[in-house]
Amino acid sequence: MHAPPAFSRSRTRGFTLVEIIVATTIMGFATLGVLRFLIQGLNIYYYDTARIKVNKDIRSFTDQMTSNAVYANYFRIYPNFATRSTTTGSTTVDANVNDGQSGDFLVLVSGIIDPTTGKTTITQLVGYYRDPDSTGIGPVRTFKASFNPAIDPTVTPLYSILNTYAPTSGAHTNPIVLQLAQGLCNGTLFYDFCDRSVMVKGQIIETMSGNTTDVNRHAVNTYNFTVSPRG
Known about the structure:
This protein is an alpha+beta fold and 231 residues long. It is 27% helix and 35% strand.
């Protein structure tokens, strides 16, 4: 008689601790590489999106200012939105800057010229101003006020008209035309050139969240533009 054949039992070999550690390390490096690639891709996306917004904002701001300047008779630049007048003794006058000076608040003045006296009565004001935060960066806002009948600035000075129709309480509520801007004219945005033209010099900044503390990559573009009222 023959003995029954013996069945061999296959043995399954497991992974050693060293092999598991090596495999885990390799997977960790691979995952890290993928994450870095994704983060870099997101940064590029954020930057390209912001850059497109910068270019769009600049075109919109330029077109809007040019259009308003065409109908303006003259302009005034003030140090900032809150500073409209200065007082010496009992005399209060406009605090506008002069030729070669700069400020953060531009007012384009439109009116009707009396052909006999040459006096201009004001029919409309369009203002642009920076609204900076503690970092010195903030949005550029705008306002518009129209008057019928026209206002005589020799009777009601411009600072008084501004106080009535563009009160400082509305500084943070007027419409935004540029998300973030930093002035390059001694820290301000508007420069008076020969009392004939306004030079706009600044850095236009765009971020995904719209604030200066955004950790995502943002786009910055230097902006230089000159606008001249018709006079």
